[in-house]
Amino acid sequence: MSEKSHTVAIGAFVIGASLIALVTVLFLLGSGFGKGETVVMVFDGSVKGLNVGAPMTLRGVQVGQVTGIELILRSDKAGVIMMVEADLNAKNIRREGPVNANLTEELIARGLRAQLNTQSLLTGLLYIELDFHPNSALNLADIDSPYKQLPTIPTNLQRIAQKLEDIDVSKLTDDLESISNGINTLVSSEEFQTLPANITSTMDTMRDLSDRLQEQLASTGPKLDTVLDKTAVTVANANRELPKLVTLIEGNLKVLNEAIAAFEKGMREVEGLASADSPTLYQLNTALQEVSRAGRSLQSLANTLEQQPEALIRGKRGDEK
Predict the structure, then answer these.
(1) Global pTM?
(2) How far apart are CA 281 and CA 267, in angstroms?
C-alpha cells in the first residue's frame, strides 16, 4: 500500500512539474518581443541582396534573422510586394522590469520600424535594421499572415529614387531645350558679338582715365601740399589769437551785462514814477492843474479885452456899477 502511494505521489509530482513547465513556456512565448516570436515585414522595393539567414538588428545588436522571403503578386492592384519573415530571439536581449504581454505592439506604437540596410558595399548584401522613428507614419500592408507585422520605412536610396520617379522628365527636357535655345539666341545676337569689343573699349577708356588721373595727381600734388602748409599756418595763428578773442568777448559781455543792469534799474525807476501813488506824479498833476487854471484866467482876460478894449484903462464895465 505504501509502495502504491509512493508511486501516486511521484506521478502527481511529475504531472505538476509538467504543468508548471508548460505554463512557463506559454507565458514566455506570449510575452512579446525577444521571446522567439516570428514577425513579418512588407517592402515595396527590391530586396535583392537580402537572403534567408540575414541578420536583423536593433541599433547594431542582432535580435533575429530572416527565415523566409516571398513575393506577393496582387492581381487586384496590379502590384508586387515583398514579404519577409524573421524570427526574433532572446539571445542578445536582457529583459528588465515587469513583463508586458503586448511588448511588440507597445514598441511599434513607440515608433519601432524595420528598414533594409547594406551590410557591405562590396558584396551588396542586405540586412534588416530595426530602430525607432516616432515621427514616421504607421503603414501596415493588407496581407494574409498569422504573424505580427512590423511596419517598414523606405531606405534613403528608395526615397531618392521615388523623388526621381516623380520628376517630369519630359517637362525637364523641354525646359532645358528652351534654356539652350535662349542661350544660343543670346550668343548669336549682334549685341553679344560686339560685347568683347565693347569691353575692350571700356577697358581702354578706363586705362586712359587712370593715366589722366595720375597726371592730375602729379601736377596738383605740390599745390595741394602748399595749400595744406598754409592751412596749417592759419590754424596755428588761429590757435594763438583765440585766447585773446575769448578775453575780448568776455570783457564785452561783462560791459553788456552792466548796461543791461543799468537799463533794468532805469526802467524800474520809470515804473516807480509812473505808478498811481508816486509823489512825483502827484506834484506833477497839481502843477498841471495850476497851469490849467492860469490858462483859463488868461483866456477870460483875452475875451474881456476883445470885447472891451478900453477895459485895460478904465476897467471892466461891471466895476463902474
Answers:
(1) 0.43
(2) 16
